[in-house]
Amino acid sequence: MSELRIRQADGGSATLHEDALQSFRGRIRGATCLPGEPGYETARTIWNAMIDRRPALVVRAAGAADVIATVNLAREHRLVLAVRGGGHNIAGNAVCDGGLMLDLSLMKSVRVDPAARRVRVEPGVTLGDVDRETQAFGLAVPVGINSTTGIAGLTLGGGFGWLSRRFGLTIDNLVAADMVTADGRLLHVSHDENGDLFWAIRGGGGNFGVVTSFEYRVHPVGPEVFAGLVVHPHAAGRELFARYREIAAGAPEALSCWVVLRKAPPLPFLPAEVHGTNVFVFALCYAGDPEEGQKAAAPILSLGAPIGSHVGRMPFTSWQAAFDPLLTPGARNYWKSHDFTSLPDEAVAVLLDYAARVPTPQCEVFVGQLGGAVNRVPKDATAYPHRDIDYVVNVHTRWDDAAGDSECVGWTRSFFDAAAPFATGGVYVNFMPEDEAGRVQSGAYGANYARLATLKKTFDPENLFRLNQNITPGGGR
């Protein structure tokens, strides 16, 4: 190849001649991949199969020096730059067509300091990687619920899961980070150093740079927890929701109980005759002593007449991976999400109605319970502003054949519109699909958007980091 053409942000293209390309490749400790070369297909293939893009050049970084070199190349040539961590984000912004892709998935170090109760991780690490290392010491970071999710994207958007009601969001446990900004500098950010950037990356997504390491506070959890699933018939949903709302309002913060509405997968504890039928599932976890957890969960466990359950003591790492088989890579995925301060009967009716008409057996609606420690943080303390909600409802629409795109996307959007009158208008940025740019300002960030836009203008005035749920420099649209 005598030259390489790479797409620029303004729609043009830059040319890297052979000597310039070889010089750049020689500065990279990791790997650089052109189409057809080893590693290229692995790097460009991400969790959501709807995303099928082909970068002109992929850099598989091995460390901060590789990140700096790649950011400098992108800035100097005004290239379209995509940044991949775990490749799990629904919007697919980790990959670009014709541009430069920075793949962080080879940066996998996890270092636990059990005495200081800290863990330092690199951006290619998954939640399962973090859990395995921290659980060796009976410690945990509050993260998400799918072990194959990347820690970088989860953290930059906020991060919530089974431990959040007791210990806060992932960003509430972020102590410091190292990041490469658009001008190619490597900065350490914390409350005491580059505090504005530290505020911005706690919820502001990948708008402000590339984080090369994260440092978190860890908490005593496990190695066993009281957790599991209780499965009821969908027909009992109205009554179960009514009692669930009462119990959830008074539940201890260590207990998180989510509702999942879907068709029953072939779980071994369910009778064969209910496989594929519509079900109402309680998914619960107690972030504390398992015996106390069993007592705390008793009101939920006593509800109705379950058709099957699998609840008890189990390794925390097992529970964190329990939903992985339902969220494997390779399917087509489209999501819509709402925040709620409460779930009135009218909202419940919408959830149950649409969940009874899922377009494929892989689809599900989950109602994630928040509150607790999450809501004791002021709205303006981090870029993530949603500190007054008790539930997040996310619609996971999954299917295998592109012929189903119209039906599946249409069902999801209809569901979203029907539920909107009962929601806050806010949205968790990590649950936003590619077509929701209009929700970034008012929905994702609200009153925090103006400060974020000002910081974007300061640290990324040319909007180099634009492949994300983008905050435009200075706030323009």
How does this model look, in words?
- The structure is a single chain.
- With 477 residues, the chain is of the alpha+beta class.
- The chain is 27% helix and 25% strand.
- The protein contains 14 helices and 20 strands.
- It has a seven-stranded antiparallel beta sheet with strand order 17-14-16-15-19-20-18. A five-stranded antiparallel beta sheet has the order 7-8-12-10-11. Strands 3-4-6-5 form a four-stranded mixed beta sheet.
- The longest helix is centred in the last third of the chain and has 15 residues, at 405-419.
- It is globular, with a radius of gyration of 22 Å.
- The mean pLDDT is 97.
The structural domain count equals 3
- Globular, elongated, flat, extended or rod-shaped: what is the shape? globular
Mean pLDDT: 97
Number of helices: 14
Low-confidence stretches: none
Strand order of the largest sheet: 17-14-16-15-19-20-18
CATH architecture type of the largest domain = 3-Layer(aba) Sandwich
The amount of helix comes to 25-40%
Radius of gyration using CA atoms only: 22 Å
Instruction: Briefly note the CATH topology name of the largest domain.
Output: Vanillyl-alcohol Oxidase, Chain A, domain 3
Query: What is the number of strand segments?
Result: 20
- Please give the oligomerization state of what you see: single chain
The biggest sheet amounts to:
7 strands, antiparallel
CATH C-level class of the largest domain: Alpha Beta
Q: Indicate the structural class.
A: alpha+beta
Percentage of residues in strands? 15-25%
Amino-to-carboxy terminus distance: 39 Å
